[in-house]
Design goal:
The protein is mainly α. It is 74% helix and 0% strand. This is Putative pentatricopeptide repeat (PPR) superfamily protein.
Length: 574
């Protein structure tokens, strides 16, 4: 009865009602309510209204299978409140120990991007089964919390439960994203020992992992060993080649592929647009059987990333004339190009198109609009869009904070940063703190205050400082004449072998006039980056400031002898 009923629920979930009915007739042991529930789950009529009424009752059911069904309905319909009510009932009634009920609850929270709540459910289960482990690991992967997913997988490996193909493929995705090739290789060995390597699903994930870890040959070996290759297999190996600049190999696989689809061509276009000749990418676009918005988006993004936004705008116009459906990625890409050239008028016209097509409440497009208006000097328009967006993610907050920093409104930067700190489910990242530190410098904030922000970033938010963070702090130290503190910070944070921070220190010495530290910084820059006009010009000016005219002249002579010339600056406006 248990197996028959489990098959019944699984097949109903997959909409295979004929097979479900066959099991029903064969075993005669399944309640009639179970079969009749399988149809409303997949039907469109009366589903939401009936669900709203049924789930709300206090005494929901004494049947675990009915409970799983109702939780899945809440998951499918995105009914957060009803799902929470079911969760409370599960705890009260003791169904949390049922492996299917608890796994359904974890999946419910995962699908609603509430992975913390999913983990709480997991912790409530007396003895979580493999399905629960896999659901939670996949949830962390899906939400981009790769290290938490990896930690959970390692915990699973230490338990008495054996991992399966779903466990392995989830952690392979983590290895690919974080480029953990050694761990990926270890997981591959575990897969071979477990005997699931022959699965095309697992093989496809291995190809993807090796491709992202820049081990293309290993990806191709997996592909060559596959007995049965589907479209995902071909597209995965093509993507592995294009990501690693092996465009000709990728084209070779495309030509061998039995029935190339739009995804196959898009992978080629994306690779060429990123690493190859843009004219070749445009040529492939023109010969594609069925180009879609992603095909055009790759060309637009390619031009924008190559600092050729005007060509990107031409492609955008052609896309509009051809009646190709534009999406959020189209607008975010082209708005990025507009921001680079400060084309305010053109950006406003694109904004009108965004509103007309109903993308004005899209968080990705909204963030791009904020960035565009800010870089065009229209920070008030950017702030209006920020306030109008119904949903904001961290990118949106960072775009607005960066916009205020770009327009030297340091007060607003700090004000918005404090708001972000108290926003539910969001917390500042490295980009946020970089803007805050930059605002501190523009606002001539006392070094002690900026240092508190810097230390909070490291200790409170566990964010590793970058060269940019360190350079901001050095500029602040230079402004207050305390560059002597910078050398200790550079050593403490492990940036001794980074030329960028020593360049920042040398520039700070030019502001405060610390000759001893300047000479140390100059030697470090030359050792790490070689001779350059920056070092000679800075040291010449610093020597002149201290009246050491012979040393200043020697710097200028060395520039002439080594044919080092100062680059001329330039400006670009719309």
């Amino acid at each position: 009865m248990f197996l028959s009923k489990g098959l019944m629920n699984t097949k109903s979930y997959l909409s295979n009602h004929k097979h479900s009915q066959h099991v029903f007739l064969q075993k005669h042991l399944i309640t009639s309510s179970n079969f009749t529930q399988s149809n409303p789950f997949n039907s469109d009529s009366k589903h939401t209204s009936n669900l709203h009424e049924n789930v709300y009752h206090t005494e929901i059911t004494n049947n675990a299978y009915d409970l799983v069904h109702k939780i899945r309905e809440c998951t499918h319909s995105g009914l957060h409140n009803h799902g929470q009510q079911l969760h409370c009932y599960v705890l009260r009634s003791g169904f949390i120990s049922d492996v299917y009920v608890s796994s359904a609850l974890i999946n419910f929270y995962v699908k609603l991007d509430l992975v913390k709540d999913a983990h709480k459910v997991f912790d409530e289960i007396p003895e979580p089964g493999l399905v629960a482990w896999n659901s939670l690991i996949s949830g962390y992967v899906r939400s981009g919390k790769f290290r938490q997913a990896l930690s959970l997988f390692l915990e699973l490996e230490r338990s008495s439960i054996c991992s399966d193909s779903y466990s392995y493929t989830a952690v392979l995705a983590v290895c690919g994203q974080l480029r953990f090739i050694r761990l990926g290789g270890t997981v591959h060995s575990m897969i071979v020992k477990s005997g699931v390597e022959c699965s095309s699903f697992v093989s496809n994930c291995l190809i993807d992992m090796y491709g992202k870890c820049e081990h293309v040959e290993d990806a191709i070996k997996i592909f060559d060993k596959m007995r049965f290759r589907d479209a995902v297999s071909w597209n995965s190996v093509i993507a592995a080649c294009t990501r690693n600049r092996r465009i000709e190999q990728a084209v070779g696989f495309l030509n061998q592929m039995p029935n190339p689809d739009t995804i196959s061509y898009n992978e080629i276009i994306t690779g060429i647009a990123q690493f190859g000749n843009m004219e070749k990418a445009v040529e492939i676009l023109s010969t594609m059987p069925n180009p879609n918005s992603s095909s055009w988006n790759s060309i637009i993004t390619g031009y924008v990333n190559r600092n050729n936004p005007r060509s990107a705008l031409k492609v955008f116009d052609q896309m509009h004339l051809n009646g190709i459906r534009m999406d959020g990625f189209t607008f975010s890409s082209i708005l990025s190009g507009v921001a680079r050239v400060g084309a305010h008028r053109r950006g406003t016209l694109i904004h009108c198109c965004v509103v007309k097509l109903g993308f004005d409440e899209c968080v990705v497009v909204g963030s791009a609009l904020i960035d565009m208006y800010s870089k065009c000097g229209q920070v008030n328009a950017a702030e209006f869009i920020f306030e109008s967006l119904p949903d904001k993610n961290l990118v949106t907050w960072n775009a607005m904070i960066s916009g205020f920093a770009h327009n030297e409104n340091s007060t607003k930067v700090i004000e918005l940063f404090e708001q972000l700190k108290h926003t539910k489910d969001l917390q500042p990242d490295g980009i946020t703190f970089l803007n805050v530190l930059s605002a501190c410098w523009h606002n001539k904030t006392p070094l002690e205050v900026a240092t508190r922000y810097f230390e909070s970033m490291i200790h409170d938010y566990q964010i590793d400082p970058t060269v940019e963070h360190c350079s901001c702090m050095i500029r602040l130290m230079g402004h207050e004449g305390e560059v002597w503190r910078a050398e200790g910070m550079i050593k403490r944070l492990g940036f001794e072998s980074c030329g960028g921070v020593w360049r920042a220190l040398l520039a700070a010495c030019g502001v405060c006039g610390d000759l001893k530290v300047a000479e140390t910084a100059a030697r470090k820059v030359v050792d790490l980056e070689g001779d350059g006009e920056f070092v000679y010009v800075m040291m010449s000016n610093i020597y002149a400031r201290f009246g050491k005219w012979e040393d200043a002249g020697a710097m200028r002579k060395m520039m002439r002898d080594k044919n080092v010339s100062k680059e001329a600056g330039y400006s670009r406006i719309e």
